[in-house]
Amino acid sequence: MQSADLAVRPVAPVLLGQRALVTGASSGIGRAIALALGAAGADVVVNYASQAGPAEAVATELRDLGRQAVAVRADVGREADVLALFEAARAHLGGLDILVANAGLQQDAPFHEMSLAQWQRVIDVNLTGQFLCCREAVREFRRRGLEPARSRALGKIVCVSSVHEVIPWAGHVNYAASKGGVMLMMKSIAQEYAREGIRVNSVAPGAIRTPINREAWDTPEAYARLLTLIPARRIGEPEDLARAVTWLVSDEADYVTGTTLVVDGGMTLYPGFEAGG
Ligand code: BGC
């Protein structure tokens, strides 16, 4: 299997003094984002739903980098949990400058067999969870007020969406619906708060090597099939996303709001048209 040399390299501490909350940060893309924000200087709340051990390990790695970090359990689909999560962020870090709404899951089924519980759970975590976290983040940014020494922005939010905010996905109707919802939720929040200096964007990962899609890459046959969907001819690594998010939440991206940064090796470029059409 081909993979790029994507180890986290030393980066300029462009987020020094900023405080970030990353949901779903015990593994996969969320973990890589939490570590990258820490490497860029941020203190981090590492949220997890069930994997306390791995989340604590991420927090320890961040502290080893010299950052403040704490692991906090919360199911983002539950309002009481989200309120407590933001309370913990305030208590541990004294405030918040960055939210990365990453927590998400899949519960796949053919549409005619999909239960209401499968539909509801995915919408609860992937869409309602992002709504609840974004709302609390906006409230927290407005409560704190602008601190130009920290950042030009009043606050930054990145929603972790998916290429399936635009690519329909048979067998995953709940998931595609949740990500399509994230797209217009993100843009609408961005429109509402741009004048206050809150920047809201999404990243849309394609196929990234994480536990959520293991069956798409962990055998040579599956990996070969997957590559037919990726013009760049490699699977993405969590660090591909982490670098994009680090840029989006930095002042380097100060004029960027309401956009989806697609990080997919070209998956959304209609790869079937590479030859023909
Ligand atoms: C899904 C993965 C999938 C990828 C590309 C992601 O949003 O979570 O399971 O491999 O999209 O289809």
Descriptive report:
This protein is α/β, with parallel strands linked by helices. The protein has a single domain, classed as Rossmann fold. The protein contains seven helices and seven strands; from the N terminus they run E-H-E-H-E-H-E-H-E-H-E-H-H-E. It has helices spanning 28-39, 52-64, 79-93, 116-144, 173-193, 220-227, 238-249, and strands spanning 19-22, 43-48, 69-73, 98-101, 155-160, 198-205, 260-263. The chain has a seven-stranded parallel sheet with strand order 3-2-1-4-5-6-7, with helices on both faces. Strand 1 (19-22), helix 1 and strand 2 (43-48) form a beta-alpha-beta unit. Helix 1 packs parallel to helix 2, helix 1 (28-39) crosses helix 7 (238-249) and helix 4 packs parallel to helix 5 (173-193). The longest helix has 29 residues, at 116-144. The chain is globular. The protein starts with 18 loop residues before the first strand and ends in a 14-residue tail after the last strand. 46% of the residues are buried. The mean pLDDT is 96. Beta-D-glucopyranose binds next to loops.
